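Supplementary Text 2. Reproducibility record for the structural model of the 123-residue chain.

All settings were left at their defaults, and a single model was retained for analysis rather than an ensemble. We include the record here because the model underlies the residue-level annotations in Supplementary Table 4.
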Amino acid sequence: MRRADRLFQIVQHLRGGRLVTAQKLGAWLEVSERTIYRDIADLQSTGVPIDGEAGVGYMMREGFDLPPLMFTRDEIVALVAGARMVRAFGGAAMARAADEALVKIGAVLPDTEKDRIARTEIH
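Retained model, structure tokens:
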């Protein structure tokens, strides 16, 4: 995984409003805790509002958000269908990535669109 992708993933995990340890982040991203500590320090130095400390855990301060990506309804349906196919046929690592993508997509959709993706089936 590229470093930029890893930093983005760290931000995504810390946006949940709960403390997340460097150990958990490292296990999820398949890097050492030391790498996570360096990444957190780098994110903080660039202005990302991360609170916490080594050994205790980290979380994002409320109100921080990344710019949204705008997708059409059809693009969202295509992404959801593709993620479900990857989850079903892509192996454990790909299934985990697909699940994470579905969580991110669902987190930013209005309720009316959440219903639509819930009904999206793969035939």
